[in-house]
Automatic annotation (TrEMBL), chain A:
The keyword Transport applies. One of its GO terms (molecular function) is transmembrane transporter activity. It is a multi-pass membrane protein. This is TRAP transporter small permease protein. Pfam families: DctQ. Keywords: Cell inner membrane, Cell membrane, Membrane, Transmembrane, Transmembrane helix, Transport. Residues 26-158 form the Tripartite ATP-independent periplasmic transporters DctQ component domain. The chain crosses the membrane at residues 21-40, 52-67, 88-113, 133-152.
From TrEMBL, chain B:
It is found in: Cell inner membrane. This is TRAP transporter large permease protein. It comes from the Bacteria. The chain crosses the membrane at residues 6-39, 51-75, 101-129, 141-165, 177-201, 226-248, 285-306, 326-346, 367-387, 407-426.
Length: 179, 441, 341
């Protein structure tokens, strides 16, 4: 079971790597576009479109990644008073719901993407980027990854519930403390 | 229709229930939305979902989220933020609450460059919360201050809320920007006054840096530190604002000047390493995705609310509207406040405002003033427990040891202060209308 | 049997949803005389309540530009927008909104209603399960707002302008840097000089955005949008399932909306322009002739290149241009001397 968790999370981590790269490209691209336009009056429509095209992989591939790194926002009044097993139950329920939501949305979005693919949809602006269905494809992909992460979390919760004294290590959480 | 009304109520209660037991907020939103929508409509309603999700992830103005978060994480990881706050704390001398004031100022300055709650709260939270905690600030005061200053960006122009409102009330964006300027500063001033009063009456909640420690830093050293630690981030803020004011960048893309600047500062101060860059990208991705997760999962909820005729319920309430302009405004404010408990501001603006506008037009209400009152009110809803978006976002980046309770308790006084600001604007409408008229916008 | 079916069906009523590409409250595009909301109301009254259309502005149900897919797939039955928004899906669609240096409003109506345009439009949309009708018209639009006067072609070199679509492509050939910006950011960007010029709609709508506070030179000749047709999009299955009388009500209400929205625009633009010039210090003037003729040359090339890119576009282009030539010779003899009087 531990191997399964590792394998699933490896996939989420790899896709997260791609999204991390998109963050860097986004920062450099927007800044470059501003500077090129101001100094040299250069501003191709395609590069302007690429700016917001990059938000899609960052937001969607990042969903599962942020869940893996425990950056999901939750209200913890009651949660922190539960026993380890009680918390494990909440975690398993949350992960089941995550799997359900991810699967429903991924499934709904497949049709949306294939419609765009059949149209050969591109930018309505001349000089814009083509293949808009690739951009749209991040919706089912991102939510599919959420299903993967949900399954991993569910397995972890089960281990936690049945072997509370020997829990599976959580992935390194986001450390915001500067100390 | 009667059945659907119960579904809407059930959806809201369900969301609350899931959230309370510790299910992630995003998942709670999506689950309650899907279940209620499905019970009311079957699967037909949700075929519109992908279009809404696509609208969120391709929204141009949301570009500012990863850019500002990158700036915040980079400044935090490279310890620039920490040094800045410590130095300001020392420079404030024995004034209790000094670092809190610095946070309000950061909020004002960041607010002047973006209007996205998620981006500012998260950035300010990352930058300042750990330092405040170490310096013995009370967790709740720290959290309240951060959330309040992080939401200032809503009212201080440029702001998404104002842009949307300008469309709805039919006044120019420029007029609303000018009109919001003084109210934004008044709100910041009220916050500052509150922190200074806390510093006098509850000094252990907002302690100044101890005398012994300040004594270790000579006046000259302090001046040097100010140059070394406060100048770089200050320059960054100037770069962001300056690029807007100087006509170099449009409001959204100005965020990239901050991100690039943070990168350059890290390089110039010789703190940049491959590991630091990787950590920064990791932090930016995790936090940005967290914000987007909530925005995306709010879509099924909002769609179900619409589909089930939630706006009809609002409409029915509206029928009970008491007479007179004063009554109508009071009612609008109360309604916005309550809707703000469970709906995102975009939904609120779309649902409630178009219904009220004809009424106020009949009364001859100044639309610019009304829009600012509405913006101020929506801003208040960002801070109101249990569903204020700002509170969720801060929870997402808060260090261990900060509880939801700290954040909720901390936010309450600031909600009261915003209410005070609202009353002030109500009593003195010229605070809103004077500037746009004076500069002819 | 069909006659009988029709008689029975005529008691049938329809509850339909209409989405809109424009945000709530927008005059002309959402509310006001001849607007989509007005159309819904007209249709409801004309049909005695048998056609009940609920209107949703952009963002209320789906984002602004998602109407095409939603109606095509039948999740929403109707949408109000401009056909050129779908250029990324069907390049030829833009001929049914406006064409730079193309037909003016009279010519466009003549082509659509009498010159085979509407038939071509329906042919084009058939594979997507859609039917379309004109449902409004802004009339001629304005070149836009410029911070500095434009005297010669070389003044365009390096100019940063907010202008979407085909016209943007034409400007960029003349050295203009095209900046795409959402509606709300146009004002702050123009006011601070991030962009030097911006195109939006016409005097009434532009004044509402406050663009005159940001730039004073207001140029005319709507070369880039000599007319602008609002599109009513209907799901074809729903359309085919409607009895003849309801179909006719929709068509006639749409035609009435064209007339009403156009006359509303013309009257309000006249008032707004007077106000802008007399009270706001706006300088309204036509673009210098050499610039216009240069733009015209580039436009001709750009359109031809676009038309040759796919057969469908070429077909619509040929039909449009043939009608335009015919109409131009008539207009040159009739309207032009009249306007010059
Ligand atoms: Na702002
Ligand atoms: Na709220």
């Amino acid at each position: 079971m531990r191997t399964a968790i590792k394998g699933l999370e490896w996939l989420v981590e790899q896709m997260g790597g791609l999204a991390r790269f998109c963050v860097l490209v986004l920062v450099l691209l927007v800044a470059t576009n501003v500077i090129l336009r101001y100094l040299f009056s250069i501003g191709p429509v395609s590069l302007q479109e690429l700016e917001w095209h990059l938000v899609s992989p960052i937001a969607l591939l990042g969903l599962a990644y942020s869940m893996k790194h425990r950056a999901d926002v939750r209200i913890d009044f009651l949660y922190e008073r539960f026993s380890v097993r009680g918390q494990a139950v909440v975690d398993v329920v949350a992960s089941l719901l995550t799997v359900a939501i991810g699967a429903i949305i991924a499934w709904l979005a497949l049709n949306y993407v294939s419609h765009s693919y059949q149209l050969g949809e591109g930018s309505p602006d001349p000089g814009g980027l083509g293949m808009r269905y690739l951009l749209k494809a991040f919706i089912p992909l991102g939510f599919f990854l959420l299903v993967i992460q949900g399954v991993a979390d569910m397995l972890r919760g089960l281990v936690q519930f049945f072997e509370p004294e020997d829990p599976v290590e959580l992935p390194e959480s986001l450390n915001t403390e500067t100390a | 229709m009667v059945g659907n009304e119960w579904l809407v109520i059930g959806m809201i209660v369900g969301f609350l229930g899931l959230m309370i037991i510790g299910i992630p907020v995003a998942i709670s939103l999506a689950v309650s939305g899907f279940v209620a929508g499905y019970l009311g409509f079957g699967s037909t309603l949700f075929s519109l979902m992908p279009a809404r999700l696509y609208g969120v992830v391709t929204n141009y103005t949301l570009l500012a989220i990863p850019l500002f978060v990158f700036m915040g994480v980079m400044l935090e990881k490279s310890k620039v933020a920490e040094n800045m706050l410590e130095t300001i704390g020392k420079a404030m001398g024995g004034v209790n609450g000094g670092m809190g004031l610095a946070i309000i100022l950061v909020g004002v300055l960041m607010g002047a460059s973006t209007g996205i709650v998620g981006a500012t709260v998260v950035t300010v939270g990352l930058l300042t919360l750990p330092v405040l905690m170490r310096r013995g600030y009370s967790p709740s005061v720290s959290c309240g201050t951060i959330c309040a200053s992080g939401t200032l960006g809503q009212i201080i122009p440029p702001s998404l809320v104002l842009i949307l409102l300008s469309d709805i009330v039919g006044e120019s964006v420029g007029a609303l920007f000018a009109a919001a300027f003084i109210p934004g500063l008044i709100l910041a001033a009220i916050y500052i006054a509150y922190l200074l009063l806390l510093g006098v009456f509850k000094k252990d909640m907002v302690p100044a840096i101890p005398q012994e420690e300040r004594a270790q830093t000579s006046g000259r050293q302090l001046a040097k530190d100010l140059m070394a630690h406060v100048m770089p981030p200050l320059l960054l803020v100037i770069a962001v604002l300056g690029s807007i004011v100087g006509g170099i960048a449009a409001p959204t893309e100005a965020a990239s000047m901050g991100a690039l600047g943070a990168l350059l500062i890290a390089i110039a101060t010789k703190r940049m390493t491959p590991a630091l860059l990787k950590e920064t990208l990791h932090g930016t991705l995790v936090i940005s995705a967290m914000v987007f997760f909530i925005l995306l999962c709010a879509q099924p909820f909002a769609l179900a609310f619409r589909g089930l005729g939630g706006e009809n319920m609002v409409h029915a309430l509206f029928e009970m509207l008491p007479g007179g302009e004063f009554g109508a405004i009071l009612f609008l404010m109360a309604l916005l406040f309550v809707l703000g408990f469970f709906l995102e501001w975009i939904e609120i603006s779309y649902i409630a405002l178009p219904m009220f506008l004809p009424v106020f037009m009949n009364y001859g209400t100044d639309m610019v003033w009304l829009a600012i009152m509405v913006a101020m009110n929506l801003q208040m809803s960002f801070l109101t427990p249990p569903f204020g978006w700002a509170l969720f976002f801060l929870k997402g980046v808060a260090p261990k040891g900060i509880t939801t309770r700290d954040i909720y308790v901390g936010a309450l006084p600031f909600v009261a202060l915003q209410l005070l600001a609202l009353v002030v604007l109500f009593q003195f409408p010229s605070l809103v209308t004077w500037l746009p008229e004076a500069i002819g916008w | 049997a069909p006659a009988l079916a029709n008689a029975a069906a005529s008691k049938e009523s329809f509850n339909l949803k209409m989405t809109n590409a424009y945000p709530p409250g927008s005059p002309f595009y959402v509310q006001g005389p001849g607007s989509p909301m007005d159309f819904c109301k007209k249709v409801g009254e004309m049909s005695g309540g048998r056609l009940n259309i609920s209107h949703f502005a952009a963002g209320e149900l789906i984002p602004a530009l998602e109407g095409f897919d939603a109606v095509s797939q039948g999740t929403v039955e109707m949408n109000a927008a401009n056909a050129y928004f779908w250029a990324g899906k069907i390049p030829a669609a833009q001929f049914f909104t406006t064409v730079p240096f193309g037909l003016n409003t009279q010519g466009m109506m003549a082509w659509l209603y009498q010159g085979g345009g509407l038939k071509l439009w329906h042919e084009l949309y058939e594979p997507y399960g859609l039917v379309a009708f004109p449902m409004g018209n802004t009339g001629v639009q304005m070149t836009g707002w410029f911070r500095d006067p434009i005297e010669t072609v070389s003044d365009l070199e390096g100019l940063k302008m907010r202008i979407p679509g085909l016209a943007g492509k034409v400007y960029s050939e003349l050295g203009v840097t095209v900046r795409l910006l959402p509606g709300g950011e146009i004002f702050p960007a123009l006011e601070r000089g991030v962009i030097d010029a911006a195109e939006f709609v016409g005097p009434y709508q532009d004044r509402r955005l406050g663009l005159h506070k940001a730039a004073k030179n207001y140029y005319t000749t709507g070369w880039h949008e000599p007319t602008n047709v609002t599109e009513l999009l209907i799901n074809k299955k729903v359309w085919d399932s409607m009895p003849k009388d309801l179909q006719m009500i929709i068509q006639m209400a749409a035609q009435a909306s064209v007339l009403e929205s156009l006359s509303w625009s013309e009257a309000n633009n006249a008032d707004a322009l007077t106000d802008l010039v007399q009270n706001e210090g706006v300088i309204a003037k036509p673009l210098p002739a050499p610039i216009v003729s240069r733009l015209k040359e580039v436009t001709a090339d750009t359109l031809l290149t676009m038309a040759n890119a796919d057969a469908q576009t070429k077909k619509v282009y040929d039909a449009y241009m043939a009608f335009k030539d015919k109409h131009a010779s008539w207009a040159a003899l009739s309207e032009k001397p009249l306007l010059n009087m």
